[in-house]
Amino acid sequence: RQGSVRESLGGRQSMGGSATRPGGLARANSGRAGGTDPLGMHGYQTLSPIANGAFSQIVRARHLSTSTEVAVKTFKKDKYFAQGNEHLAKAMKNEIDVLRRLRPLAHANIANVLAVVEDTTNVRAMLEYCGGGSLRRLLDKKRAGSNMARSFGVEEHMCNAIALQMAAALTCIHEAGIAHRDVKPDNVLFTDTTQAVVKLCDFGFAIACGTRKVRTVCGTPQYMSPEIAGKGGSEPYDGFGVDLWAYGAVVFEMLEGKPAFRGSSMEQLNIRIIRASHESFTAQTPPMARQLIKACFRLDPEKRQTAAGALADAWVSQAADEVEAKAAAAAAQAEETAR
């Protein structure tokens, strides 16, 4: 079973080389007694935890040679390759395959992989670190200031900028034949505390599907499209269309400060989704943004907005000049810091 992972790593080769042995794969025995940092032999220092699950964990780390901070996602082999967990091994292979495909594109709005290393007990993906928190955290903070009379969303100019960058990321991955399948505020990260640049992250459900339809039921219920929520995987669906439905739901939530679809039960939530019966718009969502959201919520995936269409949308593109200026400033700052 481990062969599938090694194949996805390109014959045990690191993506772009390891931190300690360019062009090759760093080897280490992680988890040694005595508190040895398991990332040390790969040329990294563990800084702090980010997320910890039953099958994988993510930590913030520093590359010792360059002082660059990264996010390290560790896949535990004893979990992924355990008998009966073949689906997990397949999911890990899919995620690594997707990251490998996206890395050469180096898109500014995707949390790209920098390297993948393997040791006797783990497979680790070194990813670009985003230190500004998630869009989910920002929305929760805004929601905490809401009251019974009004929900507070994100300011329109900021929504513009985030929607533009998300559309750019989705256009990039869709043109590469990849569907994300879990677009949601939790998976949109700010690169730093200025909150000027966002990156799409977590490709755990992503799949390189090209133009073929897929069947796997995955994603997060409030952002699932009707073809998944209503049919439960009984029929194949278009992965790109699923991403655009979720994109529309995220844009709605940013502007209105509340999820587009809500229900007191999963059954009620699904009914509202399959009818595209979203929460009512308020004055917080301008007419042009409503048109975009409605285009994303078309029940027929063939008629739904596309990523490229969203990127060119009149409301979204209003932020283009501002986003480009801030991205250039951030790049200049990063270059100055690296000197």
TrEMBL record:
Domain spans labelled Protein kinase: 44-316
CC terms in the record's Gene Ontology section: cytoplasm
GO MF term (any one): protein serine/threonine kinase activity
Signal sequence, start to end: none
GO biological process: regulation of autophagy
PROSITE patterns (alphabetical): PROTEIN_KINASE_DOM, PROTEIN_KINASE_ST
Membrane-crossing segments per the record: none
Span list, region Disordered: 1-41
Name assigned to this protein: Protein kinase domain-containing protein
